[in-house]
Design a protein that fits this description.
The structure is a homotetramer of 311-residue chains.
Chain A: E1 4-5, E2 10-14, E3 21-27, H1 37-47, E4 64-66, E5 70-71, E6 74-75, E7 80-85, H2 92-95, E8 100-101, H3 107-114, H4 130-148, E9 151-156, H5 161-169, E10 176-183, H6 197-206, E11 211-216, H7 227-230, E12 237-238, E13 241-242, E14 247-253, E15 263-267, E16 272-275, H8 290-308
Antiparallel strand pairs in A: 1-2, 2-3, 3-7, 4-7, 5-6, 8-15, 9-10, 10-14, 11-14, 12-13, 15-16
Helix pairs in contact in A: 1-4, 4-8, 6-8
Chain lengths: 311, 311, 311, 311
């Protein structure tokens, strides 16, 4: 299993949702940039659960510590090691269903692939892994902001608060779309063949748990347009290369698979039964996703930026 | 600029649309598989233009030759070098507009990035580059077909022949959606963090010129569904890992940017003017895309397959 | 700056010699292997200074902790995060010479490259970085030992204890040669072109600080031999591929550059002067190197082993 | 099997010694540099056999053609595809011993690893593969020469012409040492941990067939020196980073394993017998190696140069 992202700005994440800690090593960050634990913390706080009625009440203080790579307040060019200790690692809620594969989850696939299942709640396929992405991404976005004035902003697509509240009351969950705008991206990022900006953004977004679709610019709508019409649009990439114009993306999230309603499930022995998943879960996984999407976009553009100045 | 795809099954493509030849080096193919120029040729023939009224009439016989890596009809495990000579490299049609950036094309971005523009027609950002992907992909699909019984089938989404014909008559072009079904994919491919099967498929599809969107499974539709409903669907990947069930994707293509209608354009000096693009162009770039999508999917699964048996 | 080693068994090391902690993330370790902090600790103890008169008296207890990737005593296939806290991070000894480039050290090159110098003692170019390599390497050697019965043994080449002791008394240092034997290496590792076993071993050994030469088999002696003679030797690799026979290497280490004798030095402003380096330093850097060489060899063979089973 | 070298300046070589052609794809070369087939040819001519009594009389005209990546005499930043057709692919000499593993060759290891043996003479493990490295390396050295004034010069270490001639007369072969000087290397290349300049040079040199040892600077001699002495030497790298001073290396080559004398050999069935290798072979493989060593060094420094400007 590999958990390394990027070619020159490489992020290696680690940690299980119910283990001792989560973390990331950021390898390849240029030297001389000011960075602090407080700066990174602000993004983790945006991702943290328990902040609104729309998210799970699980308590995670998610305090980040910098263990290396920063000296006298500045990056030194050496690997930046980030650690977030897990506080809430009681897994009593999972004990009851430890022999069952939760519907819509990776439990069965994981077990089949690795011959092993971390029944404490998803292991590396848990959404908790994204805490390390947000920490690492915050370093990339600071760099791009200072160097190029780039800004990443993502938000839930619709006025679906009502729908989310309804789903929660029903013990159910609901999907959603996240929109992402990249303002003032660096020019000349990306390459015309495999490493197109849109290809790398697509990969980054579709690596976020529970994603099912990605659009850039007009997306699927462009399939219905005529060339004379589409050629007139302002578009942020041509032939995979950024031109400095804003980039706009949409990402589709499926509904949270963990729901309170009783569900049919299988276990390791192939038996079927009905299970009920306890504990508190986000009724809409996309609610906490905007800062994750922004972070992944920052990692993509940072890596492309380093590549662009190398040749 | 990099034109290498894959981690273990690595494909290095080369060649400009109006140069001497196009090619690919396939690095990492296991030894002992029967392969012939005829087998590969069949897929190139599917991609070739000039086969129906819906595609351009440009003549490309696209004959592939194997230069290395195959001995006595079988792969030897060494790099397989594939070459397709370009026949139709007169660029008279491009001469008239060589100082102009074609609207909707990569011309300006390419020039800005590389300080250079191959005015003969797109260089590496030309759709012609995909001939090398199809050649390389055919080797991957043969391997997966024999080893795992995997089948890749892609097609144009709708009954849009009428729309395409109408666009052509108007000197215009139109976008379209390509559907892709992967039957009998190998089980346990992909990883739960960055290298999710859907992330790598998204990247592969969004690296095909003119793509604007990607969906897997229910795609954007899943954003409107409830968990109790979505959990019941048969889905080919969980947590990024394949489970052996069929995988279904959709890819959105924008309309061909080259249209016969006169268009406003810019040139290198920032002047604006009206240009007319001569020559024959596909009124719908997606018409030839199904075999390209199949090939890219085969490259992704082949690479994941090699990774999956390594650990 | 990159600190990642390997293609499939990837080790990402981090930490500065005088920072909070050192560490490694091991990405790509197969699941199901028993591993404990005690097992890893034994190798760190072999590397630790202060154990004999021949090494520095600096106190480093070097206690390793496993933060992720191990569940109920076994690897889970997820990234294994290892951390070793630094205890002895007083840098008073360095304060006096913080403006001077120590002769024979990386100080000036580092400053020139990164526009920055960690005057607390070498930063990432310090030999202390190797503690993370030994921790990561111990996981690889356990795997290879259990799977293939491979054994790594390295030792100081000669009876040079007397020479080392003499150098210490003189306030000077001395170089040495480390020998490495790999018994029972897995068969069929390595590839005939760039990724030859001997090339990767050479790279691994020459990435250890202070190394100046590498030999495999007869090494430079083979340059004086005739083919009829050399062809009869038992050799562990042919064409870069292992055949299961033992592999024998030698690695040359230069003398420790930190010596007590006064030396001419330069500073950042280009001025010259005489400096004296305080503190306790190994009079022979190679004394602690055997376990490092073994660890790097284990990382190379582990990575090649994963590659060999993938194709 | 992988035949790709480099991280940013990537060279993918292909071709078997007795197949249709040899070649390389150079991926990542910056745009705008003048390059011609004549320039590359000059280096291939230096490597070509049949030029002196000290090399084999096998006739290879080794004419290189550029198939892509160069437009109007200049690199375009796109992949440069180089091809050298094989002329001399009669393998009658090999027919007689096709069932036997030649002593000192990769035949047996190759067969064991790939379940296959290209009895026509070594396949990818043949020294002929290096023709593609020299072609690719010539592009790197032109770039470094023009950009930084870097010069690569390698030569046979000793006055061993007499020894070579004697070995030839005896139907035997002999090893040798190749020296390499890199004048005016770019400053600030390489990194302090794994990607040290000396580590990458070691890997590059030890990936040349028949190499057994590598030294940089004082090499094994430094193991006998004292720090007070070694610290005074002018050295081209500190902590793995170049400082602009010349770099000096030595590479040990074993004797050519193909000799005319009758030798004991094994075959696939484990039987032993005596074989005589016909055909003309270099009595000293190192005679043609200097231009190969220069080329590999150029590839290493070019790749590090691109990396150094990226961060």
């Amino acid at each position: 299993m590999s958990s390394i992202f990027g070619k020159l700005f490489k992020v290696s994440t680690w940690g299980e949702s119910h283990g001792k800690a989560m973390g990331a090593v950021v390898d390849g960050c240029p030297s001389g940039m000011e960075i602090s634990e407080e700066y990174i913390q602000a993004f983790l706080d945006r991702r943290r659960p328990g902040q609104s009625l729309l998210t799970t009440q699980r308590k995670e203080s998610d305090v980040v510590k910098i263990l290396s790579g920063v000296f006298e307040g500045k990056t030194t060019g050496t690997p930046i090691s980030l650690i977030i200790e897990n506080e809430d690692h009681l897994s009593a809620d999972y004990e009851a269903i430890k022999d069952w594969y939760r519907p819509g989850h990776a439990d069965e696939a994981y077990d089949s692939k690795y011959g092993f299942r971390d029944y404490r709640g998803g292991g590396r396929s848990s959404a908790r892994e994204t805490v390390a992405r947000v920490a690492a991404g915050s370093i990339a976005r600071k760099f791009l902001s200072e160097k190029c004035g780039t800004r990443f902003t993502a938000w839930l697509d619709e006025g679906i608060e009502g729908e989310i509240e309804k789903a929660r009351k029903d013990g159910d969950s609901i999907g959603a779309v996240v929109c992402l705008r990249i303002e003032n991206p660096p020019k000349n990022l990306g390459e015309p063949v495999f490493d197109r900006t849109e290809a790398l953004l697509a990969m980054a977004m579709m690596s976020i748990p529970a994603t099912k679709g990605f659009e850039i610019g007009e997306g699927f709508n462009s399939a219905k347009m005529r060339g004379s019409e589409h050629n007139k649009l302002a578009v942020g990439t041509y032939g995979g290369i950024t031109n400095g114009e804003d980039i706009f993306c949409k990402i589709a999230f499926k509904p949270t698979p963990s729901i309170s309603l009783p569900q049919k499930a299988k276990n390791k022995n192939g038996e079927t039964g009905e299970i009920t998943i306890k504990g508190r879960h986000d009724p809409c996984v996309a609610v906490r996703a905007p800062v994750i999407a922004e972070s992944m976009a920052a990692l993509v553009l940072m890596d492309l930026w380093l590549q662009s100045i190398s040749g």
